[in-house]
Structure formats: C-alpha cells, structure tokens
Design a protein that fits this description.
Blueprint: H1 3-10, H2 13-17, E1 24-28, E2 31-34, H3 40-50, E3 58-62, H4 70-76, E4 82-85, H5 96-104, E5 110-112, H6 116-126, E6 132-136, H7 139-143
Parallel strand pairs: 2-6, 3-4, 3-6, 4-5
Antiparallel strand pairs: 1-2
Length: 154
C-alpha cells in the first residue's frame, strides 16, 4: 500500500474516468461550480458544501426534470441567491417558465432562460469576482454546459 500513489490517483479520478459534476470548479473569477445535485438529499449535501465557502453573492443556474420532488427541492434553496431558471434540452425537463412560477411560491427571485448556456452567460455578466455561480438541479443540465465557459475562455 502506497499512500502517496493513492492520493495521486484519487486526484486524477475525473481526468481518468470522465466523471464530472460533483462540486466541479470550472472557473475561478468568479468561482463557478457544476454540481449534479438533483434531489432532496443531493441539495442538502450541496448546501453543506456551500457553507464552507465565502462569497459576496450567490448566483444559481437551476433546472430540473419534471419527475423530481420539485417542491421539496425549492423549499431548501437559499432565498438570498439570484436565480437563473432554465432547462435541459430533453422532453423530461420542467419548462423554465413553469419552474420560475413554482420558485416564486418559495420566495426565490430570478429570470427564466431557454438553455443553460444563455443562463450561465447572464450569471457571468451579473456576478462580481467575489461572487459564486452554481449550476445545478439536473445531470442533463450540467452536461449541457458549453466547454467555452470552462477555464475562463469567455
């Protein structure tokens, strides 16, 4: 057993197997994170992770599929964040306008966008360098984030 080799290997898991979307930091100014949290337990874990970070304002790009416990998930989300409601480009996705309407019932304020990349572009325009942007709610949504947004190309 070689602890050094194990740590090196674990540090390369995402590169070796292509697994992405669990607290996957794709930019640093502002910190921009992809996370595939899409159910009640996942959102609770995501909120615990968020509590470990310091940021000025939180911007959340959020989309979800129709068959999830939408009300429970929306009730957990932070009320002080700026929201960019969107949807994955799949039939199961909850339409962004319907998601916005449901979110308002939980005092979540935001704007609806037809796809994740447009929503993320607006979040990046609105966010300061000390803010955080979080893209979450659906595995499909996270998978549709354009590579151009990663590593501060844009």
């Amino acid at each position: 057993f070689n602890a050094e080799k194990m740590h090196l290997a674990l540090g390369k898991v995402k590169d070796l197997n292509g697994l992405h979307g669990r607290w996957d930091v794709i930019r640093h100014h502002p910190v921009t994170v992809l996370d595939v949290a899409h159910n009640e337990d996942g959102i609770k874990q995501l909120l615990l992770q968020l509590s470990l970070f310091t940021f000025k304002k939180l911007h959340i790009v959020f989309g979800i599929v129709k068959d999830k416990e939408i009300s429970k998930i929306l009730s957990l989300l932070p009320k002080t964040a700026a929201y960019y409601f969107t949807r994955a480009q799949i039939p199961r996705a909850l339409p962004e306008e319907e998601l916005l309407s449901k979110a308002k019932e939980y005092n979540l304020e935001g704007v609806a966008y037809p796809n994740v990349n447009e929503a993320l572009l607006h979040a990046l325009k609105n966010a300061g360098v000390q803010d955080m942007i979080l893209i979450c709610g659906s595995v499909y949504l996270v998978g549709e984030v354009d590579e151009a947004f990663k590593n501060e190309i844009l």
